[in-house]
Predict the structure.
Amino acid sequence: MAIYNLGSINVDHFYRVARLPRPGETVSARQYHRGLGGKGANQSVAAACAGARVIHIGAVGSDGDWAVEALAARGVNTDHIARLDMPTGHAIINVDDAGENAIVIHSAANMAQDEGRIRAALAGAGPGDYCILQNETNLVRYTAEIAQNKGMHVVYSAAPFDAEKVREVLPHVDTLVVNELEAGQLADALGVATTHLPVSEVVVTRGARGAAFGATGIEIELPAFEVTPVDTTGAGDTWLGFFVAGRDAGMAVKGAMKFALAGAALQVMRPGTAEAIPDLGEVKKFLEERLNS
């Protein structure tokens, strides 16, 4: 089976600061580095590192060849990433000493996806395959409809949160992934309780407090592994990539959640986003050590 991901690709600009600036305040950065990011790229790298076959669908500008090469180096199929005559998406990320962040993104090429390229990328997909989507690209609903018609399992990370976009995509989604704030916002927008969102499966990520899964007759809550975070940027994306890869490999939901929590725990202990994502061997070793201690 395979995981297809219509996802953003960003150039991440990281600035390490003692604390996040308040409105109107200027602070000095102690460190700077550039890395691969974007929710989509992070999710694809995580799923590939977790052992899955991953096909990324996306776009970069003429300045983005290095980002495509970085994805390929982590095991992601990049055949369906277009090079366009515009800038690659990018993000400005401030990270403080507690590992918390404040992020501004510019979408650029991420919002220039093409229907023909998406159809071509999904031509060989079918039942048993997964399709990952999030709100950092255009044509999310279009892709969800194609994936649903092909019998794929559609996983939708509803971030950055936009109630109207979520409302459009939700009828074509099998697994909705939101954080606690997004779950509340969506429930308010739809006029339902968070426990009655109109989708087959709901995953609520809770940061340092773990994650919860809900489906008909199933409720699972798992705590996060206790670690000392260095940078929490991309932790949710790492979790999702490992979770989907785990289920694609045949893991039960609870096992896939533990797998994902381990991947995210290791990722937040390192600076950066995609480059901080651990490989399969590291995650297996971490789980053995933590679950046997």
Summary: The mean pLDDT is 95.
